[in-house]
């Protein structure tokens, strides 16, 4: 589904096992040399301990109490239930993960033999003692090319659950809206801003999506403006402090 968005090759006879992906857990970007020719995003192999195992308690634990309702709405859509039907119930235990691996077509000197590259999307409360919630590109319209069919978002939680013997790998996302209708004329880059339901920016636009909605990670560069930055500002605070961002390399 990502071919039209420019992130995948047509499927072919090539294949690779998940065990081939990223031997070292601290690697973030690397080539795919085994010949995989299909874009894919998968959760890490091992779930994280220390989290509540049920959806309502998990939402409170991670500071997003709307998680349960958003997940039930997601499952309602996945099951293709009618609009007037009740939301389904999730009774299974929830698995939380601190990373996912994205494989995508990105021909370059550091890509694999068939132009495939892999990267780790991190979503963890502590990465070298600092919280890290990476940004991603999510497919929102397969009929539109490039970034017009995508949306930037920040991954707030990676998790999975089972319902009726089927596993659903998911991501809780904070959406970013496109700023303007075309690329910035000075930089040639798209611009985005975090989406909120209110002008006070206290109620972020969140959604739970299936992991296959994600195309890859994305680097957002703050639009710094003309004012001096405070010396106490740290790089890892950028996504929380700045209000407008350039989308790098899309």
Automatic annotation (TrEMBL):
Natural source organism: Lentinula detonsa
Record lineage: Eukaryota, Fungi, Dikarya, Basidiomycota, Agaricomycotina
Protein name: Uncharacterized protein
